[in-house]
Structures
1.
Amino acid sequence: DVKVTQSSRYLVKRTGEKVFLECVQDMDHENMFWYRQDPGLGLRLIYFSYDVKMKEKGDIPEGYSVSREKKERFSLILESASTNQTSMYLCASTSLGERRNEQFFGPGTRLTVL
Amino acid sequence: GQSLEQPSEVTAVEGAIVQINCTYQTSGFYGLSWYQQHDGGAPTFLSYNALDGLEETGRFSSFLSRSDSYGYLLLQELQMKDSASYFCAVRDQGHSGAGSYQLTFGKGTKLSVIP
């Protein structure tokens, strides 16, 4: 089974801190995604990557950056955390093969910015 | 851009059938997906429709009408464990070629199954 792991389930940071969220998948998937999920707003795409070192902005990239140095790892960076970035962050991955229409999600990181 | 509309909440009785509708407006469309998410859990894939018609997988079915920009998820023989949020999502081509694509999700429908 595909496994997508995220570095932390819960994280508490202070305003202005630089925050790194890590995501690792073990199925050699080409595409990886970062979403944030807020009550009543569903999942909103922050950034995605379709290959190593390649990235594309999603719907809400402001205040975030990403890094994909290795195929299995996709990092989300909050350059200077703010309270409005308190949210659940979900990482997902998908292949370009037979199951290309299925995104596999990690368990999520609940980030609180104080 | 993309926008999707689905009901925010639905309540149904155990053993019954429930239909969750999704309408969408898109600038590009490749297919409609459905995901299930239990409280505190990660979204999990249920189905994907690229062509018009009904796709059945066990108790769950998904329907798409491209001409109407409309789809639905049908859950039959409801069980208590089906209580969850259900999201429709539209697949769109990314800007960087065939390898890049993205999903835009609706805001989700919270389904409550009652005894």
2.
Amino acid sequence: SQQGEEDPQALSIQEGENATMNCSYKTSINNLQWYRQNSGRGLVHLILIRSNEREKHSGRLRVTLDTSKKSSSLLITASRAADTASYFCATVLSSGSARQLTFGSGTQLTVLP
Amino acid sequence: DGGITQSPKYLFRKEGQNVTLSCEQNLNHDAMYWYRQDPGQGLRLIYYSQIVNDFQKGDIAEGYSVSREKKESFPLTVTSAQKNPTAFYLCASSKDSGGRGGRETQYFGPGTRLLVL
């Protein structure tokens, strides 16, 4: 099974509300990254959090990392219809190849206007 | 206009045919990757290359081949041995090269959708 698993699989909210997505993983990581994918398009990197960091912000995004629970969350505040997309977490392991990202299966976020 | 380009956007494969997907980047990145994405799923790594003339198998390399003759280019061939090739194929690159210290983010192309006739 994949290293990262997102929860929930799908999330539907009203514009202006906050959206929270969670990611769990199994083995020790060097860093965890969140990516966004609009339907039928490539992925866009949102934010990277390293294993020695607990929280990171970027604009309306807030990411937390709890290495003891092997979990991360992505919070999008004041959501907009344009935030509608799939969101993936991806982990880089602390051992093995420096290059490999292992992706979860994603959360499909729908923001209703 | 820098970035990663993939072509074609759509590709149709006949049974028993090999097809090649193009990936080019002008970001001067050392590392390049190919992923496969099935509907409603995450990405799975097919092959990656850290430097020119070198590449490594990912998790699902069977039925695929790659080459890395130039830094800018990393074409993927889907061979007839790949029995279920219908998927969305994504190419990515990252700045870092070599060693365990680099954990850079990856930059993705727009993807190629491969369909079987």
